[in-house]
Amino acid sequence: MPKIDAHIKSFNKVNKEWKELKDTQKAVKKEIQPLVAAEKDKNTHNIKNLEEAIIQFTQDIKKREFFQYKCGTATALQKLDGVFDELKTFEDQIADYGDNAAKFGDPGQIGKAQKDIEQIKVTVENMKVLWDHIDFCG
């Protein structure tokens, strides 16, 4: 029986430590809740700013040279390549803010920005195909 008593004492000790750990976890969670809420709000704000920047970018890109035939093939293709670099910056921000949104329990929050960037990529890729075709025919 001494072996069983040792196991019971060990179990009771571990059980007590587990309860204390759970109580500590609850206290820490309550203590950091305002900080978590502030970071969640900050990320939401950053996502809204990103969405606005993407909307502005979408409007501005339609005014660029490669949308006009007179700019020529070489210039258009060069400018289009630069757009892909700009889109990479947006995609990096989407990845960062999307990871944060997922951590805060709302991964769909970044969906609009992702959709808008994908649409811009389709437009730019279509313009590149068009200019490649013009170059081929010219």
Briefly say what this structure is.
With 138 residues, this protein is an all-alpha fold. It has helices at residues 2-61, 73-103, 111-137.
Q: What features would you describe in this structure?
A:
The protein has 138 residues and is mainly alpha-helical. It has one domain (2-137). Helices cover 86% and strands 0% of the residues. The chain has three helices and no strands. It has helices spanning 2-61, 73-103, 111-137. α1 crosses α3 (111-137) and α2 (73-103) packs antiparallel against α3 (111-137). The longest helix is centred in the first third of the chain and has 60 residues, at 2-61. The model has no long low-confidence stretch (mean pLDDT 91).
Structural class: mainly alpha
Strand-and-helix sequence, N→C?
Answer: HHH
Shape, principal axes of CA atoms: elongated
The span between the termini is: 96 Å
| Oligomeric grouping of the chains | single chain
Q: Taking Cα atoms only, what radius of gyration do you get, to the nearest Å? A: 27 Å
- For the residues shown, what is the average pLDDT? 91
Q: Largest sheet, if any?
A: none
Low-confidence stretches: none
Query: Into which percentage range does the β-strand content fall?
Result: under 5%
Strand runs, count = 0
